[in-house]
């Protein structure tokens, strides 16, 4: 009898407790699941900054980059497809540090994002005892304070390090600029940096020391929040226009020409001839076998057999350019102005290969691929070739 009474009392006591739990944890309770609340969220008016105050503090902390494309809806005559993901930089599992050279210019290339390289460069300068006088993480600039070499007591020196996005995804370039002035020149005020280093040997010293340090240390993976947007975005992108795909490059023309020349000698391309004055490479292409490549991706256009000899051509670039039979219209005049000035002979028979055309000014370069008669390729075919060039750039 006592057990029955105890159970009755316990049940009676649990009723308000369970009701209290539902008030706390139910759909209408205080601790309810709020996982779907965002579906009911409404837009609110943007914050209006009072007149006379700066809006810089309201900038986006994590900026969403804009998609590089023109006003067109895609390549003319094509159906939109989800693009294949861009390959990561070469050897992402193993960090590589290289010193690149083009003419008299030298810079450090590392296959690590700028946001990871920035704190490592700062650490290098600190360990080397080089005081930092100025930093601009947004633009990737670090300037040292004045220093004096023991072998040169009459002058004082300063370095400017420019950290930029590389041409490949998740890669970084470090450019070094050196200046030297007399030791009695006032150190205060704005520094007027020269266009080129005052002393190539001292520039090389900084590049060699920094490259050696980056190569010898193990990256911790730490990143700088302030340096998330270094470089302002990728230097190279494939754009789709209403006419044809283009490879857009934000590089000096000399470097763009050189790196495209490097790219069209690799990855299945074979360079037959080129003319820097005309800005054209004449190339052949044969798809290289790739065990990891999805079957049929490039082979639908280019085929290829590892036992076949490299493609050849019986014509020189000058012969090809002299006999293109181009229609004299605004588009062709903009791209092939120099070619149209030449005498047009009869068309060549079965001209093989492709013309890789480099056009534009510094930091606004366009690269397009045409057939050997300078006619438009099928959009997917042109884009596939540009993707190969894109992967081969340095």
TrEMBL record:
Source taxon at top rank: Bacteria
Signal peptide: 1-19
UniProt cross-references to PROSITE patterns, sorted A to Z: PROKAR_LIPOPROTEIN (PS51257)
Keywords in alphabetical order: Signal
InterPro entries named in the record: BamC_C (IPR042268), NlpB/DapX (IPR010653)
Pfam families recorded: Lipoprotein_18 (PF06804)
Designated name of the protein: Outer membrane protein assembly factor BamC
Species per Swiss-Prot/TrEMBL record: Exilibacterium tricleocarpae
């Amino acid at each position: 009898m006592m057990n029955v009474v105890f159970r009755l009392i316990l049940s009676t006591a649990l009723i308000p407790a369970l009701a209290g739990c539902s008030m706390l944890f139910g759909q209408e309770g205080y601790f309810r699941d709020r996982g779907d609340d965002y579906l009911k969220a409404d837009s609110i008016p943007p914050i209006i900054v009072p007149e006379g105050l700066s809006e810089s503090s309201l900038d986006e902390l994590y900026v969403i980059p804009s998609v590089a494309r023109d006003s067109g809806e895609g390549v003319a005559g094509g159906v939109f497809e989800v693009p294949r993901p861009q390959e990561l930089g070469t050897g992402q599992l193993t960090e590589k540090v290289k010193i690149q050279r083009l003419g008299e210019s030298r810079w450090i290339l590392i296959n690590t994002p700028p946001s990871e390289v920035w704190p490592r460069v700062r650490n290098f300068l600190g360990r080397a005892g080089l005081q930092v006088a100025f930093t601009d993480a947004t633009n990737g600039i670090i300037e040292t304070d004045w220093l004096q070499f023991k072998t040169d007591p009459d002058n004082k020196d300063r370095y400017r390090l420019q950290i930029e996005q590389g041409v490949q995804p998740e890669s970084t370039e470090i450019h070094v600029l050196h200046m030297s002035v007399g030791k009695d020149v006032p150190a205060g005020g704005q520094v007027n940096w020269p266009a080129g280093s005052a002393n190539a040997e001292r520039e090389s010293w900084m590049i060699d020391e920094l490259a050696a340090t980056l190569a010898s240390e193990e990256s911790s993976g730490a990143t700088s929040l302030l340096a998330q947007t270094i470089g302002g975005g990728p230097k190279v992108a494939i754009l789709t226009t209403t006419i044809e795909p283009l490879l857009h490059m934000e590089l000096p023309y000399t470097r763009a020409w050189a790196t495209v020349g490097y790219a069209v000698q690799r990855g299945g391309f074979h360079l037959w001839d080129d003319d820097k004055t005309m800005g054209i490479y004449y190339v052949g292409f044969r798809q290289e076998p790739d065990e990891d490549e999805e079957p049929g991706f490039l082979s639908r256009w280019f085929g290829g057999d590892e036992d076949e000899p490299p493609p050849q051509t019986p014509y020189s670039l000058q012969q090809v350019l002299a006999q293109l039979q181009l229609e004299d219209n605004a588009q062709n005049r903009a791209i092939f102005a120099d070619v149209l000035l030449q005498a047009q002979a009869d068309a060549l028979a079965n001209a093989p290969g492709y013309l890789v055309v480099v056009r534009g000014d510094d930091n606004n370069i366009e690269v397009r691929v045409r057939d050997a008669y300078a006619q438009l390729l099928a959009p997917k075919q042109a884009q596939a070739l540009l993707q190969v060039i894109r992967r081969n750039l340095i």
